[in-house]
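Changelog note: in this version the structure field was regenerated for every chain. One regenerated record is shown below for reference.
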Amino acid sequence: MFRRCLFVALSLVSIALPVLAQIETPAQRAFQQTMSSVRDDGNIPGLVAIAFDPDGVYLSVQGKRRFDRPDKVQGTDRFHIGSNIKSMTATLLAIAVERGRLSWETELQALFPDTPMHPAYRRVTVEQLLHHRAGIVSLPDLAALAQVPAFAGDPQQQRAAFAGWALQLPPETHIGVFNYSNGGYALAGAIVDRVSGTRFEAGLKQQLLRPIGSRAEFGWPAAQSPKQPWGHYEIDGQLIATDPADPQFLFPVWLRSAGDLSISLLDYASYVMLHVEAACGRPRLLSAQAFERMHAVPDSVDGEAYSMGWSELELEGGVQVSTHSGSAGNFYTTAAYDHQCERGIVVMVNSGSERAATAVESAVFDFMAQE
């Protein structure tokens, strides 16, 4: 009964957003206070969050779009989710698998037959790539991205050019060893271009987000409108707003499938609920087997419990939790849910500082650990 009521309640949240934010039940008040503490502890300008547990659904919308301006964050504002797009990229490839366009065991040499590649990559599978076990260049930060050549053309052409560049490099690690790789998920975007019948950007919106009633935009939120949250970083305790047009903060378009999407709280929560519902025996859009495959952790000696865009953890008492955090340095998003459909939470903030990340993750895991 709780699960059925939960799905109904979350579907009504988007209709009653302004009302829900003002509800003053003790549990809602406690959630608001917790999120206020997150802002204080993390020196965070603005925050949006949604959570559920057996007692209800909770929402928090607070703070400013930019630390030095009066505009308040709205529940419909978009936040940059960084690497949390990786799960979406994997889900988009799962759709292609179920449509017979490829399999999880399809090898890179079959997907890029016209692309010269290092011999070590030829037998790497799509599944290994999405598990970060393909040895592809990791590109962990802006300094590493600056070493990648500039590619010409539209986003699809640039992803193809990136694939041609990355696949000629020697592997950073042995194939099969976990090595978190933004480059690997950029390559996954190039695979979507080749197998989905459309370019990655259109595929994500039309094949994944639109069917679940969600919308999103690539790039920084304030790049589309100044009346959106600005990202912030911190130096010596001082917040600095990042100009969404500043070239030093612009990601190359070929990296979109690895970490460059802006989305509202409820649109992102709707995507997370796609995975929650599957874990609770109510799969949509894809088969139960597809979701199980995406959340399966490969056997390995390194013990890294990473599936396809999710970390798979076990809390005290044996509760299984899927979680992931994403940040491009000036926003931070964490999502988590348990596989018993008892608890789930999404927190999105417009600061990417270490303080902000610590405050967000501490609150998320405190919430998930409650009994």
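Spot check on this record: The chain has two domains: 2-83+215-369, 86-202. The longest strand covers residues 46-53.
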